[in-house]
Design brief:
mainly alpha, 70% helix, 14 helices
Length: 281
Amino acid sequence: MATSLSKGKTPAAASSNKPDDFYWLVGICLAALVFRIWTPWDIVFEGGAVRLQQIDAYYYLRLVENFLAHPPWLIFHDPYAVAMSDGAVTGAPMFAMVLGLIAWICPAAPAVTIAIVPAFLGAAAPVIVYLMTRRLTGSRGAGLMAAAILAVLPGAWLRASQLGSADHHVLEGLLASVVLAAWMRAIDTERQSDAAMAGLALWAYLATWAGGALIVAILVGWTCLQCGVDVWHGRRVGYLGRITVVAFGLAALGYLPLSYVYLWKYTMAALGGGILIGVLF
């Protein structure tokens, strides 16, 4: 097995997680959830009403209400969107679909569900960051510290994952972390199954944000850099081609039906370029 850029495991880190890690992560995630809910609670739930905190949140509320009217379909034309896109709904559908499915199952009002879901998505992100950091550094302590920092990190991520801030950016950020973690694992293990999981994660990410072609470029650059490291150390690089072709191929197949999403052709071009580079490996 080739040594990848993402490897940094020590013998101690190669052992199984200690039970304490689980409890620490649960505590960190609960702290992240409280941090996102506590302050805006009285603002969002005021006087028996639900006051969503962004314009886009009300847009997603409309999509979810239409989804609940005829599940499991989202609308493709909305008269309220005429000013932006002649009425065509051209955004990536994953976030609206996730919200719709949760609202379909949850007995609460759709507005309540939409207000709460972003906080739970934000509270789940420290787990992914812990796994990535632990794999990269080989240190459990570093992984827990990274998770704890993300849990209370101010800025755009906190804003996107607060109570009432229902926008696709919270799912986009979470899935971007999942994609990177899955790519690291695929390079480390060289298994086709892990490459397939990375491809599925990439498809979910691309179906969440129309501008997701940027992460494809990042992954291609990462893989080319890994290729250079392997060549420098006299190691084979064929496994990188297999990972790239499998992952990007699955993502492209899944994204192909979403041709109505704006910037679709650029995303498909990026995936096609990635597959071509994988073939060259």
